[in-house]
Records
---
Amino acid sequence: MPDVAIVHDYLSQYGGAERVALGLADMYPDAPLYTSIYQPERTFAEFASRDIRTTSLQRLVPQGRFRWAAPFLGRAFQNLDLSSYERIIVSSSAFAHHVRHSNAYIYCHATPRFIYDIDQYFSGHRLLADVTRPFLGALRQADQRAAGRHNNYVANSAVTARHIAEIYGKEVPVIHPPLRTEHLPRDPTPRPAEARALVVARLQPYKRIDLAIEACARAGVALTVAGAGIDEHRLRAMATGEVTFLGRVPDEQLAGLFESHSVVLAPGIEDFGLAPVEANYAGRPVVARGAGGALETMRNGVTGTLVEGDDVAVWAEAIVATLGRTWEPGALRDLTLPFQLPAFEAAVRAWTEST
């Protein structure tokens, strides 16, 4: 029996938190990975080679409906028997930190948005917000009790660290998520002659892809949207200008996607946000919201352009100005070095093996 186990919220989507879970699994290849729900066709293929162990919800939650299980996820994690492990490493942005263990290390991607910022999380989807709202009081109390059981926390960004301090009353250090590069271009290439913008994100309302669509239409710049999610129908209905929706793009196609676009847009306020760092590694500048995680990953005028607020005209101007500048792809890649996998692994081992 290995002395370490890894715990992650759910393996039923493609996202930055899931890439972190893969990084942890690479660090501890013999460790089983516990999760509430595992739907292999809806997450990264690399998990198929891991020892994945699920909760009782695995048999009960339909494909793509894991959010409707929210009232039951906390209890499902509490019921996991992890007592045979010396320590556990928990990758949590929702309910994974509800596990019970005397030596748990919680890597917090975010305090749960749908509990503490429901209107932003479900923006444009009032029915989902209204269904969730009656449960908020109980969910918040349970979430804070769960956090109170654990002493060893780190945050993925300064933004998340502030939220942890405000909500859980814990002052915690920061370990940035790892930039995994297997799915990115081997070498940074020059930007294509034809200007085209790219968004790579799950289609959730708080990602503000509607702002990217409107700004590109105003700027007269073609836009490609790579991703899937609950906001897709609304975004397609509102799209004007030249907008291409690709749905979820497999990892093996992402390198070519970055290479065929000139600029990457990140209009939402992220707790960290890996897509801008991936874009820089691919040699592409980023136009990002000047708030949240982008303030830790982006340098205005150096790795791209930071935009204050969500005024469409201001965003359109920033996109045009960024496209009009010269950016050195190799220099953009070099600036991602602090976020690459070796730095993450060293920081995690120092955190979990010295306390």
---
Amino acid sequence: MGNTNTFEKIKTLGALKNTGYKARSVKDEIRENLMKKLGTAKNSYRGIIGYEHTVMPDIERALLSQHNILLLGLRGQAKTRIARLTTELLDEYIPVIEGSELNDDPLNPISSASLDLIEKMGNDTPIAWVHKSDRYVEKLATPDVSIADLIGDVDPIKAASLKLPYSDPRVIHYGLIPRSHRSIFVLNELPDLQARIQVSLFNILQEGDIQIRGFKLRLPLDILFIFTANPEDYTNRGSIITPLKDRIESQILTHYPETIPVAREITEQEVRITDERKSTIEIAELLRDLLEMIVFEARESELVDEKSGVSARMSITALENLYSTAERRMLVNGEKKAMARVSDFWGIIPSITGKVELVYEGEQEGPHNVALHLMSGALTKLFLEYFPHPESSIDENEKDVYGTLRAWFGAGNAIEITNDCSEKEYVAQLDSVPGLRKIVESRNIDKKYQPLFMEFLLHGLTEFEVISKEYMDNYLSFRDPLADMFNDLS
């Protein structure tokens, strides 16, 4: 209902009535505000990317239908963020009876305290204004959540201080749900809630009745319920009981980004990197794509539990670590700027190992080796987008594109790239390989990024076993495995 500048002088029930104020339910309020936004083509959920043609239309239809909503999806699919952004569809401010525990509407109070106050003071009943940001209540469902937490209980301290018997409704201490009257109530991870606690939600969702320690209260609560759940929970930790699912009118499935560009847009929106750091550390498009492809690889890997999912937080924290890896090298070498390298992906391994749930085979491999496996798979796919397959690398002049490299490494030559080598040393090592820069130049790569693509080319050739790559504590080396074998024999 407008803003505080317009209604700041309205401080009593009588003054509110004179404005012609009409009460609306929270679902009516959201519906009407959503209709206005849809009519002006405004985005109802700013910052939600990749759901424009899938999840968001379903949510908008549910809100237009005035439904309670269950968001069902794997971790890291923006379920809680969607719930929080729904507050943007509420009115900026609404009037309440001042001091009311339940955000009582001045024209439709439901608590006995507010009813008594209006009966006593009439049009002089004081009015307060509540901002939409204060009309959002969120609770994480855990096995220890009680009915008292959600619904309420008798408060013996209140009974003693007011000298009231336990039979008096004024001794009730209301839980989170009654206090969410005229608000949005979000219950995250619904299946983790014990079945007997889920039962207590039946009548609230359907009829608005609640019962507290023998008190049968008819409270027509006005709440938009949004629940979130992970499909994994249905089998591993708990389940949503069928009668409760039946009372939640719309179940909406969320999903992970479906393309690399969308995934990148989400990561770059969420990553916590200052403009100052961005101005000194550059991460090329090649590496941003590679990072997202690692996440896609994890979601498809047989070593990772697909039921658990791979959160978008993996790519966000990995990108932050990639920035920090390049930044650390820059500081160690006293350089003023840095460009991330393929070898800097060593620095993102901690972001991978902590974000994936492994199946038995993955546990046998070990988290570190699984991370290397995921990087290897992503690098192999991205390599073929820029360079020809080594087994079909004959050019139009019927020459092997990688022939010079094969011959040089085959002669027993090798290069080593240390983790913290300066930019000058890095370029010098790569240029020591005959024909390497020439291959990159033939792909019309910007000169600025040629050293990065030269290193990328070497990593790619190791995936196709043209050369081998060996990781040591502080460096990696590229060499020909057969040449090493013959040297050892000789």
---
Amino acid sequence: MRRHVIIGRFGSGDRISIPTASGETVTRLEFVTAARRFDHGIGDALDDLTKLGVFPTEIGLDLLLLAAHVHAADTRISRTSESQDNWTREIRLVVPVSDVTRWTSATTVLVRLLNFLTGDLWTIDFRARPRKFESAVQQRPAEPNTSPFDDLALFSGGLDSLIGAIDGLEQGRTPLFISHAGEGATSDSQNTVFKGLQKHYSGRPFGRLRIWMNFPDGLVRNVAVERTTRGRSFLFFATGVFAGTGLNRAFVLRVPENGLIALNVPLDPLRLGALSTRTTHPFYIARWNEFLNALGISGRIENPYWDKTKGEMIANCANRTLLSRLIASTLSCASPTKARWLGHGIQHCGFCLPCLIRRAAIRSGLGASDPTTYTLSNLAAKVLDTHQAEGQQVRSFQYAIERLRQKPQLASLLIHKPGPLSDETPARQVALADVYSRGIGEIAALLASVRSEPK
């Protein structure tokens, strides 16, 4: 195990000395090119927002720079080689910001937020930006705000984000959608779905910010990259808030995610901890809102579908005709490129956890045949091997289904396993238990005739 420190730098003129502890492995993360332009997609994001009439604040830029540190550390420091238990890393960040006092006051909640999200041990230090970068964002013009946007929403190219986009547009909102341009399959899905929305709602002035943020392999010397990306939602949320600070008003960043996957209750005892992602968990969102309050940012993050299953989201979508037309272009699969090993193109595998939830939801909510192409097209065609990928998630769901069938009252206890629900009222906790039970019910209907066993 090694402790790592990522130190953000603002170009060759940034020569401040940063003390490091004995045993820390140091990586310098350069943010400014020779042309004094922000790198890693940040300069492009600033330019794109300016064209849309959106002018983020210095604190907003600080937040995106912090997210870049987090994203670099999370994706370029291997859990296998750099931790004692093959999971928990010790990571320190040194982030240049515009207001050290303001950021330091928010450190405690920030560290709590990150530790919960990724399962690592984070230490965050802040230092002042170099003098020539004390003011780094374009100032808002003196004339009244010309931005048309009255809403912000994450837009991943997935089914839930499509439903969120349709519902918002049908309600008359003018959203600015926030996307991260990751690997090719996700980017293709985002583009196809967004173009479909543009075609249907032609003449409406909604827009999209896509941030392209990737770091080279080998950024951290002699360390392999990390593929689990548990911290990815920090970048997504931070990009949305970054844009929100440029709206010159209080804002809500909407995170469309069905309640079953947001809770992400472990399906079996082996899933507790490292395998239980927390990217939209209620505790995580609550800590973000506490964090924004500590920074003095007039914004909130909300999941409008926290009490809905994915099937219910489909059934209640404000334009089911449009949804049916675009649904096949959305991407839910955890590993859409693995079909290449079988000679196929990029497509849904049909048997990973998000694919199973998708299949069950479309079966429950659309009331029609599923237009999605799955590598494993018929789950019931053969006995699935639980020692192979095609049967592992099915068996885990079957375990959870049977557990809840025998003792339905367990739902009110199981929802607490992924993380604390101390921010939720008793009534909301009852609603969370109920959405968990209904979500498992959707999966049970899908798997009623599916057989799995070890071979």
